[in-house]
From TrEMBL:
<dbReference type="GO" id="GO:0070403">
    <property type="term" value="F:NAD+ binding"/>
</dbReference>
<dbReference type="GO" id="GO:0006635">
    <property type="term" value="P:fatty acid beta-oxidation"/>
</dbReference>
<feature type="coiled-coil region">
    <location>
        <begin position="33"/>
        <end position="67"/>
    </location>
</feature>
<protein>
    <submittedName>
        <fullName>3-hydroxyadipyl-CoA dehydrogenase</fullName>
        <ecNumber>1.1.1.-</ecNumber>
    </submittedName>
</protein>
<dbReference type="GO" id="GO:0008691">
    <property type="term" value="F:3-hydroxybutyryl-CoA dehydrogenase activity"/>
</dbReference>
<feature type="domain" description="3-hydroxyacyl-CoA dehydrogenase C-terminal">
    <location>
        <begin position="190"/>
        <end position="287"/>
    </location>
</feature>
<keyword id="KW-0560">Oxidoreductase</keyword>
<dbReference type="GO" id="GO:0010124">
    <property type="term" value="P:phenylacetate catabolic process"/>
</dbReference>
<feature type="domain" description="3-hydroxyacyl-CoA dehydrogenase NAD binding">
    <location>
        <begin position="10"/>
        <end position="185"/>
    </location>
</feature>
<keyword id="KW-0175">Coiled coil</keyword>
<keyword id="KW-0520">NAD</keyword>
Length: 296
Protein backbone atom coordinates (compact mmCIF):
# COMPACT_ATOMS: atom_id res chain seq x y z
CA UNK A 1 0.00 0.00 0.00
CA UNK A 2 1.15 3.53 -0.68
CA UNK A 3 0.27 7.00 0.53
CA UNK A 4 -2.82 8.65 -0.92
CA UNK A 5 -2.11 10.24 -4.27
CA UNK A 6 -1.67 14.02 -4.21
CA UNK A 7 -4.52 14.32 -6.70
CA UNK A 8 -6.95 13.13 -4.03
CA UNK A 9 -9.04 15.73 -2.26
CA UNK A 10 -8.93 15.68 1.53
CA UNK A 11 -11.95 16.70 3.60
CA UNK A 12 -11.43 18.13 7.07
CA UNK A 13 -14.38 18.58 9.44
CA UNK A 14 -13.96 21.04 12.29
CA UNK A 15 -12.11 24.32 11.81
CA UNK A 16 -10.92 24.61 15.41
CA UNK A 17 -7.39 24.23 16.71
CA UNK A 18 -6.82 20.74 15.31
CA UNK A 19 -8.84 20.93 12.09
CA UNK A 20 -6.99 24.12 11.14
CA UNK A 21 -3.60 22.50 11.70
CA UNK A 22 -4.51 19.28 9.89
CA UNK A 23 -5.94 21.18 6.92
CA UNK A 24 -2.73 23.21 6.72
CA UNK A 25 -0.54 20.08 6.82
CA UNK A 26 -2.51 18.35 4.02
CA UNK A 27 -2.61 21.52 1.89
CA UNK A 28 1.12 22.09 2.36
CA UNK A 29 1.67 18.53 1.14
CA UNK A 30 -0.05 19.33 -2.14
CA UNK A 31 -3.62 18.09 -1.65
CA UNK A 32 -6.71 20.11 -2.37
CA UNK A 33 -8.33 20.42 1.07
CA UNK A 34 -11.94 21.29 1.79
CA UNK A 35 -12.64 22.49 5.31
CA UNK A 36 -16.09 22.30 6.89
CA UNK A 37 -17.39 23.63 10.20
CA UNK A 38 -21.01 23.96 11.29
CA UNK A 39 -20.25 27.36 12.87
CA UNK A 40 -21.01 30.08 10.33
CA UNK A 41 -17.86 31.52 8.70
CA UNK A 42 -15.54 29.41 10.90
CA UNK A 43 -13.87 27.63 7.96
CA UNK A 44 -13.43 30.90 6.06
CA UNK A 45 -11.93 32.64 9.09
CA UNK A 46 -9.63 29.70 9.79
CA UNK A 47 -8.25 29.73 6.24
CA UNK A 48 -7.66 33.50 6.53
CA UNK A 49 -5.87 32.93 9.83
CA UNK A 50 -3.68 30.15 8.35
CA UNK A 51 -2.70 32.54 5.54
CA UNK A 52 -1.83 35.26 8.03
CA UNK A 53 0.31 32.93 10.13
CA UNK A 54 2.12 31.52 7.10
CA UNK A 55 2.88 35.02 5.82
CA UNK A 56 4.55 35.75 9.15
CA UNK A 57 6.73 32.70 8.54
CA UNK A 58 7.74 34.12 5.14
CA UNK A 59 9.06 37.19 6.97
CA UNK A 60 11.06 34.82 9.18
CA UNK A 61 12.29 32.99 6.05
CA UNK A 62 10.76 29.65 7.07
CA UNK A 63 8.56 29.58 3.95
CA UNK A 64 8.77 31.15 0.51
CA UNK A 65 5.90 33.32 -0.70
CA UNK A 66 5.25 30.76 -3.47
CA UNK A 67 4.86 27.98 -0.90
CA UNK A 68 2.38 30.05 1.06
CA UNK A 69 0.41 30.97 -2.07
CA UNK A 70 0.30 27.33 -3.14
CA UNK A 71 -0.83 26.17 0.31
CA UNK A 72 -3.56 28.80 0.52
CA UNK A 73 -4.70 28.01 -3.04
CA UNK A 74 -5.14 24.40 -1.90
CA UNK A 75 -7.51 25.40 0.92
CA UNK A 76 -11.22 25.74 0.19
CA UNK A 77 -14.31 26.23 2.31
CA UNK A 78 -16.83 23.38 2.23
CA UNK A 79 -20.32 24.75 2.75
CA UNK A 80 -21.83 21.37 3.55
CA UNK A 81 -20.75 17.76 4.06
CA UNK A 82 -22.02 16.99 0.55
CA UNK A 83 -18.92 18.83 -0.73
CA UNK A 84 -16.90 15.76 0.37
CA UNK A 85 -18.51 13.54 -2.28
CA UNK A 86 -15.22 13.09 -4.16
CA UNK A 87 -12.83 13.05 -1.18
CA UNK A 88 -10.24 10.28 -0.88
CA UNK A 89 -9.92 10.82 2.87
CA UNK A 90 -12.07 12.74 5.33
CA UNK A 91 -10.56 13.62 8.71
CA UNK A 92 -13.01 14.57 11.45
CA UNK A 93 -11.77 16.98 14.15
CA UNK A 94 -14.94 18.17 15.88
CA UNK A 95 -16.05 18.19 19.51
CA UNK A 96 -14.91 15.18 21.60
CA UNK A 97 -18.39 13.66 21.88
CA UNK A 98 -19.19 10.19 20.58
CA UNK A 99 -22.81 10.81 19.60
CA UNK A 100 -21.98 13.97 17.67
CA UNK A 101 -19.09 12.28 15.87
CA UNK A 102 -21.21 9.22 15.02
CA UNK A 103 -23.94 11.41 13.53
CA UNK A 104 -21.36 13.08 11.29
CA UNK A 105 -19.93 9.73 10.13
CA UNK A 106 -23.42 8.37 9.42
CA UNK A 107 -24.03 11.35 7.16
CA UNK A 108 -20.62 10.98 5.52
CA UNK A 109 -21.35 7.37 4.63
CA UNK A 110 -24.32 8.49 2.59
CA UNK A 111 -22.18 11.07 0.75
CA UNK A 112 -18.71 9.64 0.21
CA UNK A 113 -17.74 6.81 -2.12
CA UNK A 114 -17.12 3.35 -0.62
CA UNK A 115 -13.39 3.86 -1.29
CA UNK A 116 -13.14 7.03 0.78
CA UNK A 117 -11.24 6.57 4.07
CA UNK A 118 -13.04 7.97 7.10
CA UNK A 119 -10.64 9.08 9.84
CA UNK A 120 -11.13 10.66 13.23
CA UNK A 121 -8.74 12.83 15.20
CA UNK A 122 -10.39 11.76 18.47
CA UNK A 123 -8.05 11.72 21.47
CA UNK A 124 -9.91 9.08 23.41
CA UNK A 125 -13.09 7.70 21.88
CA UNK A 126 -13.03 4.04 20.84
CA UNK A 127 -12.59 3.58 17.09
CA UNK A 128 -14.40 0.25 17.39
CA UNK A 129 -17.38 2.00 18.99
CA UNK A 130 -17.39 4.87 16.48
CA UNK A 131 -17.37 2.39 13.60
CA UNK A 132 -20.16 0.24 15.05
CA UNK A 133 -23.31 0.49 12.96
CA UNK A 134 -21.53 1.88 9.90
CA UNK A 135 -22.11 0.30 6.51
CA UNK A 136 -18.34 -0.01 6.02
CA UNK A 137 -16.82 -0.05 9.52
CA UNK A 138 -13.53 -1.37 8.13
CA UNK A 139 -12.69 2.03 6.62
CA UNK A 140 -12.93 3.87 9.94
CA UNK A 141 -9.52 4.65 11.44
CA UNK A 142 -7.99 6.99 14.00
CA UNK A 143 -5.57 9.58 12.59
CA UNK A 144 -4.55 11.32 15.78
CA UNK A 145 -2.45 14.45 15.33
CA UNK A 146 -1.01 16.49 18.17
CA UNK A 147 -1.28 20.19 18.90
CA UNK A 148 -0.09 22.23 17.03
CA UNK A 149 -0.50 19.83 14.10
CA UNK A 150 1.82 21.66 11.66
CA UNK A 151 4.67 21.41 14.17
CA UNK A 152 4.16 18.20 16.13
CA UNK A 153 5.53 15.22 14.23
CA UNK A 154 3.72 12.34 15.89
CA UNK A 155 0.54 10.86 14.44
CA UNK A 156 -1.11 7.83 16.06
CA UNK A 157 -2.77 5.60 13.45
CA UNK A 158 -5.41 3.84 15.49
CA UNK A 159 -7.16 0.64 14.45
CA UNK A 160 -10.44 -0.54 15.91
CA UNK A 161 -11.45 -4.17 16.00
CA UNK A 162 -12.56 -4.23 12.37
CA UNK A 163 -10.37 -1.53 10.79
CA UNK A 164 -8.82 -2.94 7.63
CA UNK A 165 -5.06 -3.37 7.70
CA UNK A 166 -4.81 -1.82 4.23
CA UNK A 167 -6.65 1.30 5.34
CA UNK A 168 -4.38 1.68 8.40
CA UNK A 169 -1.32 1.21 6.18
CA UNK A 170 -2.52 3.84 3.69
CA UNK A 171 -3.13 6.33 6.50
CA UNK A 172 0.28 5.51 8.02
CA UNK A 173 2.03 6.03 4.66
CA UNK A 174 0.05 9.21 4.01
CA UNK A 175 1.04 10.68 7.37
CA UNK A 176 4.68 9.82 6.59
CA UNK A 177 4.38 11.46 3.15
CA UNK A 178 3.08 14.57 4.94
CA UNK A 179 6.34 14.71 6.93
CA UNK A 180 4.95 13.15 10.09
CA UNK A 181 6.21 10.30 12.26
CA UNK A 182 3.30 7.86 12.41
CA UNK A 183 2.94 5.00 14.88
CA UNK A 184 0.39 2.22 14.88
CA UNK A 185 -1.81 1.83 17.96
CA UNK A 186 -4.71 -0.43 18.83
CA UNK A 187 -7.88 1.30 19.95
CA UNK A 188 -7.72 1.20 23.73
CA UNK A 189 -8.88 4.19 25.84
CA UNK A 190 -6.50 7.14 25.30
CA UNK A 191 -4.49 5.08 22.77
CA UNK A 192 -0.80 5.52 23.64
CA UNK A 193 -0.04 9.18 24.31
CA UNK A 194 -3.21 10.06 26.19
CA UNK A 195 -2.96 6.87 28.26
CA UNK A 196 0.50 7.96 29.42
CA UNK A 197 -0.38 11.65 29.70
CA UNK A 198 -3.60 11.35 31.74
CA UNK A 199 -1.94 10.39 35.06
CA UNK A 200 0.61 13.20 34.44
CA UNK A 201 -2.22 15.76 34.32
CA UNK A 202 -4.15 14.06 37.15
CA UNK A 203 -1.20 13.97 39.54
CA UNK A 204 -0.29 17.60 38.74
CA UNK A 205 -3.88 18.61 39.52
CA UNK A 206 -3.77 16.69 42.82
CA UNK A 207 -0.58 18.56 43.76
CA UNK A 208 -2.32 21.84 43.02
CA UNK A 209 -5.46 20.83 44.92
CA UNK A 210 -3.38 19.90 47.96
CA UNK A 211 -1.64 23.30 47.63
CA UNK A 212 1.78 21.67 47.48
CA UNK A 213 2.87 24.37 45.01
CA UNK A 214 1.28 26.74 42.52
CA UNK A 215 0.85 26.08 38.78
CA UNK A 216 3.82 28.16 37.69
CA UNK A 217 6.12 26.35 40.12
CA UNK A 218 4.87 22.93 39.07
CA UNK A 219 5.16 23.78 35.36
CA UNK A 220 8.67 25.18 35.78
CA UNK A 221 9.71 22.07 37.68
CA UNK A 222 8.46 19.74 34.94
CA UNK A 223 10.31 21.81 32.33
CA UNK A 224 13.55 22.45 34.15
CA UNK A 225 13.96 19.25 36.17
CA UNK A 226 11.69 16.84 34.30
CA UNK A 227 12.85 17.79 30.82
CA UNK A 228 9.26 18.14 29.56
CA UNK A 229 8.61 20.81 26.96
CA UNK A 230 5.61 22.02 28.96
CA UNK A 231 4.13 21.40 32.39
CA UNK A 232 0.58 20.11 32.84
CA UNK A 233 -1.04 23.51 33.41
CA UNK A 234 0.41 25.38 30.43
CA UNK A 235 -0.12 22.31 28.24
CA UNK A 236 -3.79 21.90 29.14
CA UNK A 237 -4.28 25.64 28.55
CA UNK A 238 -2.91 25.05 25.05
CA UNK A 239 -5.04 21.94 24.46
CA UNK A 240 -8.18 23.72 25.69
CA UNK A 241 -9.64 22.96 29.14
CA UNK A 242 -12.95 21.89 27.56
CA UNK A 243 -11.27 19.43 25.19
CA UNK A 244 -8.94 18.13 27.91
CA UNK A 245 -11.78 17.67 30.40
CA UNK A 246 -13.87 15.75 27.82
CA UNK A 247 -10.88 13.48 27.12
CA UNK A 248 -10.24 12.95 30.85
CA UNK A 249 -13.87 11.93 31.45
CA UNK A 250 -13.87 9.66 28.42
CA UNK A 251 -10.69 7.79 29.48
CA UNK A 252 -11.85 7.60 33.14
CA UNK A 253 -15.20 6.06 32.09
CA UNK A 254 -13.58 3.68 29.64
CA UNK A 255 -11.30 2.31 32.39
CA UNK A 256 -14.29 1.69 34.68
CA UNK A 257 -13.43 4.58 37.02
CA UNK A 258 -9.75 3.74 37.58
CA UNK A 259 -8.46 6.31 40.11
CA UNK A 260 -5.34 7.03 38.00
CA UNK A 261 -7.52 8.70 35.39
CA UNK A 262 -9.96 10.49 37.72
CA UNK A 263 -10.98 13.98 36.54
CA UNK A 264 -10.39 16.88 38.95
CA UNK A 265 -13.05 19.33 40.11
CA UNK A 266 -10.56 22.06 39.21
CA UNK A 267 -10.93 21.08 35.55
CA UNK A 268 -14.72 21.11 35.78
CA UNK A 269 -14.69 24.54 37.45
CA UNK A 270 -12.53 25.99 34.69
CA UNK A 271 -14.86 24.63 32.01
CA UNK A 272 -17.99 25.83 33.85
CA UNK A 273 -16.46 29.29 34.15
CA UNK A 274 -15.49 29.41 30.47
CA UNK A 275 -11.80 29.51 31.39
CA UNK A 276 -10.81 27.32 28.47
CA UNK A 277 -7.14 28.35 28.24
CA UNK A 278 -5.48 30.16 25.37
CA UNK A 279 -8.55 30.06 23.13
CA UNK A 280 -10.71 31.99 25.61
CA UNK A 281 -7.90 34.19 26.94
CA UNK A 282 -7.99 32.73 30.43
CA UNK A 283 -7.28 29.30 31.93
CA UNK A 284 -4.77 28.41 34.60
CA UNK A 285 -2.95 31.48 33.25
CA UNK A 286 -4.15 34.70 31.67
CA UNK A 287 -3.40 35.31 27.99
CA UNK A 288 -5.08 38.69 27.87
CA UNK A 289 -3.12 41.63 26.57
CA UNK A 290 -0.67 42.86 29.16
CA UNK A 291 -1.04 39.79 31.37
CA UNK A 292 2.21 38.53 32.78
CA UNK A 293 2.60 34.82 33.23
CA UNK A 294 3.62 34.36 36.86
CA UNK A 295 7.08 32.95 37.38
CA UNK A 296 7.88 30.94 40.48
P1 LIG B 1 -12.00 23.00 18.97
O1 LIG B 1 -13.03 23.23 20.00
O2 LIG B 1 -10.86 23.94 18.83
O3 LIG B 1 -12.68 22.88 17.52
C1 LIG B 1 -13.77 22.03 17.23
C2 LIG B 1 -14.50 22.59 16.02
O4 LIG B 1 -15.49 21.65 15.59
C3 LIG B 1 -15.23 23.92 16.31
O5 LIG B 1 -14.84 24.87 15.35
C4 LIG B 1 -16.71 23.56 16.18
O6 LIG B 1 -17.48 24.61 15.67
C5 LIG B 1 -16.65 22.38 15.22
N1 LIG B 1 -17.79 21.47 15.32
C6 LIG B 1 -18.37 20.98 16.44
N2 LIG B 1 -19.37 20.15 16.12
C7 LIG B 1 -19.41 20.10 14.77
C8 LIG B 1 -20.22 19.40 13.83
N3 LIG B 1 -21.19 18.57 14.22
N4 LIG B 1 -19.97 19.57 12.51
C9 LIG B 1 -18.99 20.40 12.10
N5 LIG B 1 -18.20 21.10 12.94
C10 LIG B 1 -18.40 20.94 14.25
O7 LIG B 1 -11.48 21.50 19.25
P2 LIG B 1 -10.05 20.89 18.90
O8 LIG B 1 -9.12 21.21 20.00
O9 LIG B 1 -9.69 21.25 17.51
O10 LIG B 1 -10.36 19.32 19.01
C11 LIG B 1 -11.06 18.64 17.97
C12 LIG B 1 -10.83 17.14 18.12
O11 LIG B 1 -9.42 16.86 18.11
C13 LIG B 1 -11.38 16.52 19.41
O12 LIG B 1 -11.84 15.24 19.11
C14 LIG B 1 -10.13 16.46 20.31
O13 LIG B 1 -10.21 15.47 21.29
C15 LIG B 1 -9.05 16.15 19.28
N6 LIG B 1 -7.70 16.56 19.65
C16 LIG B 1 -7.47 17.75 20.29
C17 LIG B 1 -6.18 18.13 20.63
C18 LIG B 1 -5.90 19.44 21.30
O14 LIG B 1 -4.78 19.61 21.81
N7 LIG B 1 -6.84 20.37 21.36
C19 LIG B 1 -5.03 17.27 20.31
C20 LIG B 1 -5.36 16.08 19.56
C21 LIG B 1 -6.66 15.73 19.29
Amino acid sequence: MAALDKSMMIGVIGAGAMGAGIAQVAAQSGHLVKLYDNRADAAKETIASIEKQLKRLVERKKFTLEQVQQTVANLQVANELADFEHAGLVIEAIVENRDVKQAVFAELESICSAQCILATNTSSISITRLAAGMKHPERMVGMHFFNPAPIMKLVEVVSGLVTSKEIATTVFDTAAAWGKVPVYAASTPGFIVNRVARPFYAESLRLKQEQVADCATLDALMREAGGFRMGAFELTDLIGQDVNYAVTCSVFDAYYGDFRFQPSLIQKDLVDAGYLGRKSGEGFYSYKEGAVKPEP
